[in-house]
């Protein structure tokens, strides 16, 4: 279990996160959902260890990680822009992070991740030759081969559309299920959160406005902000929402 206890953060005396408390179960996909500037990316960076919090604790499997450096937490992230190296081909990008982690993963396991993500035909391609969906899969493979305890994803679908977006969404869900991998996703898109996640954290002005399953949030929104934020943005995305929650939300 990943526990966030009383997490607080200020930037220039402005409160960005205020007393955040969350319990995230092993293998769950949890989306951090909220409008721009709500604090969700700051919370993701605090989990990763990229940003220091002003107060609170991070506990993972009973171990206090609050003061553990980023490299020793066992968490890893796929950034929004993928952060791939253009001078390396797809395979070289995938194995780049293993240079200082010899013995942690076998070549057979690396190849299994590559096959799982459907990347075998693309391994010798330069990054400039890959589509957006292929770049996203390379970034996922590069992260997975390091065997993270927690997978963090920053707006993983924002640069994708149509069939490619749905494909990556399905692959992320498959990864979490196949490897029982706790997965935290930052998104500003309610449709993405509702159709990808086991649970959703809605963040507003640095506070948790609601934490629950997609069904809970759709059927029992805690306040007017949640109802407005969720439902207003869903009217153009009817197909997936109808499939999951029924005609009243389509």
Layout of helices and strands:
Blueprint: E1 2-11, E2 14-24, E3 29-33, H1 40-48, E4 55-60, E5 63-64, E6 75-78, H2 90-95, H3 107-116, H4 132-144, E7 150-154, H5 162-179, E8 182-187, H6 190-196, E9 199-204, E10 207-212, H7 214-219, H8 224-232, H9 238-245
Parallel strand pairs: 3-8, 3-9, 6-7, 7-8
Antiparallel strand pairs: 1-2, 1-4, 4-5, 9-10
Helix pairs in contact: 4-5
Structure keywords:
six-stranded mixed β-sheet; 2 domains; four-stranded antiparallel β-sheet; 250 residues; Rossmann fold; alpha/beta; single chain; globular
Task: Describe what this molecule looks like in 3D.
The structure is a single chain. The chain is an alpha/beta fold. Helix 4 runs parallel beside helix 5. It has two domains: 135 residues, P-loop containing nucleotide triphosphate hydrolases (Rossmann fold); 62 residues, no CATH class. The strands form two sheets. It has a six-stranded mixed sheet with strand order 6-7-8-3-9-10, sandwiched between helices. Helix 5 links the parallel strand 7 and strand 8. It has nine helices and ten strands.
What pattern of helices and strands is seen along the backbone?
Answer: EEEHEEEHHHEHEHEEHHH
CATH topology name of the largest domain, in short, is: Rossmann fold
- Shape type: globular
- Report, as a whole number of angstroms, the end-to-end distance: 35 Å
Number of structural domains:
2
Radius of gyration: 18 Å
Approximate strand percentage: 15-25%
Number of strands: 10
């Amino acid at each position: 279990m990943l526990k966030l206890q009383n997490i607080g953060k200020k930037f220039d005396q402005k409160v960005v996160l205020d007393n955040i408390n969350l319990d995230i179960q092993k293998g769950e996909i949890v989306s951090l959902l909220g409008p721009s500037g709500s604090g969700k990316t700051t919370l993701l960076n605090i989990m990763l260890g990229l940003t220091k919090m002003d107060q609170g604790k991070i506990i993972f499997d009973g171990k206090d990680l609050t003061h553990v450096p980023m490299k020793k937490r066992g968490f890893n992230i796929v950034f929004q822009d993928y952060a791939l190296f253009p001078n390396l081909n797809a395979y070289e990008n995938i194995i780049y992070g293993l240079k200082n982690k010899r013995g942690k993963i076998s070549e057979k396991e690396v190849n299994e991740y590559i096959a799982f993500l459907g990347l075998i035909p693309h391994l010798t391609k330069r990054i400039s030759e890959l589509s957006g969906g292929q770049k996203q899969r390379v970034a996922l493979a590069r992260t997975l081969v390091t065997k993270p305890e927690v997978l963090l994803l920053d707006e993983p679908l924002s640069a994708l559309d149509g069939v490619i977006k749905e494909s990556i969404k399905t692959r992320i869900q498959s990864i979490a299920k196949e490897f029982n991998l706790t997965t935290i996703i930052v998104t500003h898109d309610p449709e993405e959160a509702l159709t990808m996640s086991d649970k959703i954290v809605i963040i507003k002005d640095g506070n948790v406005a609601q934490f629950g399953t997609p069904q809970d949030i759709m059927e029992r929104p805690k306040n007017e902000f949640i109802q407005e934020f969720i439902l207003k943005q869903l009217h153009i995305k009817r197909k997936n929402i109808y499939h999951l929650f029924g005609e009243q939300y389509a």
